[in-house]
Records
---
Amino acid sequence: MTIARFPLGRVVATPAALQALIEAGESPVTLIERHVAGDWGDVDEEDRRENDRSLTDGCRLLSAYTLVSGEKLWVITEADRSSTTILLPSEY
């Protein structure tokens, strides 16, 4: 059971991100569970610290995950926690 460190709001994904997940045989739920637990994935140390600060400061949260296919996906929760989006970095 994952303990949520922040609210996700409405969870959505772009068609391209969903296609990448299907092709990799991975579930979006896994990425969302990691993100909401504070496992920021493949972000650098500076982004990791920024995310940790954003938990209390109420800023945007960004996680990056590499699928088994090698495709990278981002999970972004907006600063107001109204929504969380799974997308390809090129779609940002």
Note: The first helix runs from residue 15 to 24.
---
Amino acid sequence: MQFLGGSDEVGNLALVLDFHGMRFLFDYGMSPGKPPRFPLAPPPVDMTFLSHSHLDHCGMIPWLCSQTDHNIVTTEPTAIVSNLLQKDTVKIAQMDGYSVPYDNTDVKTAEHSYAYVEPGTKQHLGDEYAIRFHSAGHIPGSLMFELIGEKRVLFTGDLNVVDTRLVKGTQPVPCDVLFLEGTYSGRET
């Protein structure tokens, strides 16, 4: 496991995980400040998973896709909203005089790199392993990713357990290893 960003700050989330000879990238975000901050470049990966469309999780996907071919596994709503936010990121950076490491051509490339999945489905990773997709209950299209092997590994991204008008809250997923987003951890609201 290697955090490329986001482990000790809000934003820039990017996690590389080695899983039974495969290497996965979970999210590849940015911190959209003035100036924006970006995670480290990832090593080569076998597959990239995008939990949801907030910029701290999806903001650097166009740069990633401009470097090498990637299939970005996510839901269709996440892909659509991510694409809109990435276009806005380029426009706002130009207006504010900051640079981002991608342009609208890269955003277009990313738009064609998404591989859609649905919550509640499972995809096999070879003969012995699989990944199951769970609704994260955070925003429409948000996902949690459960890697299934000798141990169950869960990457949540942002999640919500309370039903809202837009999405139902997520349900617990039994696992052996949990990667849990903790932006407001320990904070009373």
Note: The CA atoms of residues 26 and 49 lie 5 Å apart.
---
Amino acid sequence: MAKKKKMPSQPRTPAADAPATLKDMLSREVLDKLKAQSDEWKAEETSRKEAERKALEDQRKAEQKRLENDFAHLLENSSQDWHKFK
């Protein structure tokens, strides 16, 4: 019994079977402009988030400093075991 030889199938090109997309229809210049604008928006978003995070951190530090200068707050939150400081 001889083995059957398999015929190599021709690979399909997915681009030939798929319908044309918007990316295929747009010119290279328009795609470059859209990508540049997308990158710019992403950079603006990250800088906005960083500024927001920094503002929250500064606000938290200011509140902590205010509480450290408030004698009533320090007295309420201090340990009542004074023997360990002798």
Note: The mean pLDDT is 84.
---
Amino acid sequence: MTTLSDLERLTRNLPGTENKMPVLFVGHGSPMNAIESNEFSQGWAVMGKQLPKPRAIICISAHWETKGTFVTAMEHPKTIHDFGGFPQELFNVQYPAPGSPVTAEHTKESIKGALVGLDHAWGLDHGCWSVAKNMYPNADIPIIQLSLDYTKNAQWHFGLAKELAVLRTKGILILGSGNMVHNLGLINWNDFNAKMDWAEEANEKFKTLIQNDDTKNLISYDHLGRQASLAVPTPEHYLPMLYALSMKENNENLSFFNDKTMGPISMTSFKIG
């Protein structure tokens, strides 16, 4: 069990504000991106090489929804294969990155707006490891996951996420993993990547709001019209984007990458800082 002295020893030696880590939001798309060499997996690999090496990663994934807020706190998180219908090769993948009970405790202490539970059962789901595997193939960066409380609205999540911003100054990479546009109910099963005008329009609308720092309308996405309603039929893939945006400071640079819409899914990603 991590003690207060462990936390004090860690934080005393962590870097200061001048070494603030960037924040990432990634559109993770299909789990197959974990093992395929394509423009998206290659984009993650390039980003992993460009970023300063983090001391640890906190991932907010679309695929861990809970009642309440939890953070993984085990030493060795398991690789979760939370999908079906894919080749056995994908199910064989293991991503043995270490956990970080110290980072979990520090995350818990940083969040004042919710009671954060320490979880020892979850692990790393594909929203996390499919991206991390390409960014950090050596699996040598400690990773923890923060859950999404499905009982709370977007405004609450945006406020909670702001409390994580201080961890950027501790050498910790905050990684939101979801998709700004994600509606598998409208996928064309004869052509997965068939162009859908509403998806492209929604993606461009979200990008414009992001570029304009219009977080008010991004939080109230359900009032942005038909395209946005189709793009976000349920919030879990959209919320990790809000987590990342909440940590953007005034005049801080934001740049897009992997900027492409495929059928009813947007792979558009961005880096802050």
Note: DSSP finds ten helices and twelve strands in the chain.
